[in-house]
Amino acid sequence: AKAQQRAGFFYFSRSMGVEIRERVRMMHALRSGFQRGELFLAFQPQVDLASGRAFGAEALLRWRTEDGRMIGPDRFIPIAEYSGLIVDIGEWVLRQALAELVRLRAGGHQDFTMSVNVSQVQFRHPHFVDMLRRALDDTGAPAEYVELEITESMAMEEPALLVEKLAQVKRTGVSIAIDDFGTGFSSLSHLQRLQVDRLKIDRTFVTEITGSARGSSIAEMVIQLGRNLGLSVIAEGVEDERQAHILRTLGCPLAQGFLFARPLTPEALLEWLDNQAL
Ligand code: C2E
Ligand code: CA
Ligand code: CA
Ligand code: CA
């Protein structure tokens, strides 16, 4: 038994060593890649479901490494968070997104909104609100057209602190959406105390919507919840017309997904918007 234990330990520590080494390697690659300008943003249009017209976009981070490989944010954001790099990267993302919003406005899209993902590591940083204020000032982006997306898992933690921080953020004039809504367990009373503006129905519930009657029950509940609390609701990951149809029937006002547009380069976004205006 002792030998087995030892063998087990050896196996465990070796595989863990590989994993940590891989993580450290990626962290270094990300840090230098960030400095070399390998990160960029893609913008996915968000639309009004009834008319199909775009009212805004979500900024999504992309990483193309030196050798041309694309690494998805699902893989490198956790490493950026783990290493603390997300604080600098997140500030850069925010400034890039705000600058793009200013360019879009100059190009005639005055009512366009920009949604930016904020990691909890970034949000918890003591200077987050100062950083946000400075980014708004420096870029000249109007706060009323800026939305920050925080995940529901974060919305659950340390209620008192979160309520206060969200209140500070709201005072800058930006709005707040709870991302991946339905995947966590926010209680109603908790939700009421948070000064959020929008709930974002997680893609998994949109995918389930065309299955059974039960499949649509979570999406339906979120839409109803939004209505009762006076919050805006957007469905993410809408891929086909059937899903869009059901969401419309359920009274979901807003949507985002491949059915309407993929995440686009700034140039492609402008072209997409101009085509829509025709
Ligand atoms: P998310 O915030 O839930 O973003 C939505 C993801 O769904 C994006 O993946 C988007 O490209 C994808 N998507 C949009 N429409 C569809 C659709 O119709 N079907 C399918 N299958 N997928 C769709 P992406 O860009 O790979 O981002 C993954 C996650 O990485 C994001 O999930 C977000 O949590 C995180 N992320 C991305 N950019 C940033 C960032 O700038 N900062 C932080 N902190 N996190 C980010
Ligand atoms: Ca998001
Ligand atoms: Ca989401
Ligand atoms: Ca998601």
Structure description:
The protein is built from 12 helices and 9 strands. The chain is an alpha/beta fold and 278 residues long. Strands 1-2-4-5-6-7-8-9 form an 8-stranded mixed beta barrel, surrounded by 5 helices. The longest helix is centred in the first third of the chain and has 35 residues, at 2-36. It starts with a helix and ends with a helix. The mean pLDDT is 92. Bound molecules: ligand C2E and calcium ion (3 copies). One calcium ion is lined by residues 179-180, 200, 202, 236.
List the helices and strands and how they pair.
Layout: H1 2-36, E1 39-48, E2 54-64, E3 70-71, H2 73-83, H3 86-106, E4 113-117, H4 120-124, H5 128-139, E5 146-151, H6 152-155, H7 159-171, E6 175-181, H8 188-193, E7 198-201, H9 203-208, H10 217-229, E8 232-235, H11 241-250, E9 254-255, H12 266-277
Parallel strand pairs: 2-4, 4-5, 5-6, 6-7, 7-8, 8-9
Antiparallel strand pairs: 1-2, 1-9, 2-3
Helix pairs in contact: 1-2, 3-5
Residues 44, 60-61, 72-74, 77, 90, 93, 117, 119, 179-180, 203, 236-239, 257-258, 263 line the site of ligand C2E.
What's a quick, concise take on this entry?
By secondary structure, the chain is α/β, with parallel strands linked by helices.
SSE order in H/E notation? Answer: HEEEHHEHHEHHEHEHHEHEH
Low-confidence stretches: none
| Number of helical segments with 4 or more residues | 12
Shape: globular
Our measurement of the CA-to-CA distance between the termini, rounded to an integer number of angstroms, reads 75 Å
Protein name: EAL domain-containing protein
Domain EAL: 23-277
Keywords: Phosphoprotein
